């Protein structure tokens, strides 16, 4: 019997200490903080640093930026020990490099995949090549705004082989994450998953407020999917 692969888990859009603690307790590998003022889940760099100070060793803080000035990105990353950047706007490869040092900080680059059949037209292989210095390519649905829309693109339309570490995002929930892992596991170097709205408290006014029970359910679903790959 071979060991089951381990899917890394990021819980994104956290704004409260209790939610950070719940994600840690559930077994998350990374915690995401949104540094984009127009997002309902936005926090300041100072607040992100406060929340990230609760993280134990080996859990990575991730700071999400959208078309931010390089100097502000570097300042925020310098404030949060061990943080990596997630670029979710229109940043070019050159801008990503400039905003991370270059080489001083690691970063992920979001790819916004069109919904429906149009997703087949997105050239993920070329995108991954263009952003080859990124630690990973994060896959999200292309919806109005930037991230956290709760929409899933058609995972089956992605290429059969992508030479990159991928992070599946966009519309993930405890109910569907296992399907995403099953479809994409063998199509990339490694697969991670990223959830935000799928583990939030129900209700239109609760963006950024996580449900500890849903976080536990999400992590359990990922681990069950991993176990199904052992043989």
Automatic annotation (TrEMBL):
Keywords tagged on the record: Amino-acid biosynthesis, Aromatic amino acid biosynthesis, Isomerase, Tryptophan biosynthesis
Reactions catalysed, as given in the entry: N-(5-phospho-beta-D-ribosyl)anthranilate = 1-(2-carboxyphenylamino)-1-deoxy-D-ribulose 5-phosphate
Keyword Cell membrane among record annotations: no
EC class (word): isomerase
Molecular function GO terms recorded: phosphoribosylanthranilate isomerase activity
Entry's EC annotation: 5.3.1.24
Single GO biological process annotation from the record: L-tryptophan biosynthetic process
Domain N-(5'phosphoribosyl) anthranilate isomerase (PRAI): 9-220
Any Pfam family hit: PRAI
Functional pathway: Amino-acid biosynthesis; L-tryptophan biosynthesis; L-tryptophan from chorismate: step 3/5
PANTHER family, per the entry: N-(5'-PHOSPHORIBOSYL)ANTHRANILATE ISOMERASE
Annotated family: Belongs to the TrpF family.
Protein name: N-(5'-phosphoribosyl)anthranilate isomerase
Organism for this UniProt entry: Variovorax beijingensis
